[in-house]
Write a structure and sequence with these properties.
213 residues, Porin, 2 domains, 8-stranded antiparallel barrel
Length: 213
């Protein structure tokens, strides 16, 4: 009976020591897991762009793929909103692009191609039979991209400088409304005009600043 009691005491002591070691080592284990998670490449970036693919400005999201490779890829999408400020024009649009990145540590050569959609609403100087009205134009255009991107594998500042020429695709222009009534129908144009610039292709560029997380 004494031997059984002794064995029971030894087992209880071993359990206590095991629990104590688990409690003692758990902060180190969780710290190691947290540190390991911090070393994983970050894929998501929110950034604002002046000019560039969004024409005048845009707020965009970028998602990285193949993060463990020298050649990475990403998909980005954004919105453009330019209110009318004394010129009678309002722009609203969206854009998406697919990008290929050639990486060396934090520095990347970026090649990409995108498609943009833009709505232009004009009020200044728009008339029909002596009445003031609104004109709406709808544009779509391609945006090839060549640029430099600074982006750390972990979270941090994102910076990009890119050449983003605009290439006309399909437009629907000339729609005029007076009040709530449409008085002039729109017409379709193909490969003729980039956002009322009057060119099939237009040289353009942009600068982006954001944060990777």
């Amino acid at each position: 009976m004494a031997i059984a009691e002794k064995n029971s005491i030894e087992i209880d002591l071993m359990k206590i020591v095991y629990i104590y070691l688990c409690l003692l080592l758990s902060p180190l284990i969780s710290f190691g897991q947290k540190d390991s998670a911090n070393l994983l490449p970050k894929r998501n970036t929110i950034y604002i762009e002046a000019f560039g693919q969004g024409l005048l400005n845009s707020l965009s999201y970028d998602r990285l793929y193949r993060t463990n490779k020298i050649i990475k890829t990403s998909v980005s999408a954004g919105l453009t909103v330019v209110p009318s400020i004394g010129v009678g024009d309002f722009y609203f649009g969206s854009q998406i692009s697919y990008n290929v990145l050639f990486a060396k540590k934090n520095h990347h050569l970026e090649l990409g191609v995108g498609l943009n959609f833009l709505i232009e609403t004009m009020t200044e100087g728009v008339e029909y039979l002596g009445e003031s009205g609104d004109e709406k134009n709808y544009y779509s255009y391609f945006t090839p991209k060549l640029g430099y991107r600074f982006q750390r594998p972990q979270r941090g500042i994102f910076f990009r400088l890119a050449f983003t020429p605009l290439v006309a695709f399909m437009n629907r222009v000339g729609e005029i409304s007076v009040g709530n009534a449409q008085v002039v129908n729109s017409r379709y144009e193909f490969f003729t005009n980039v956002v009322s610039f009057g060119n099939r292709a237009f040289p353009w560029g942009g600068i982006s600043v954001g944060y990777t997380f």
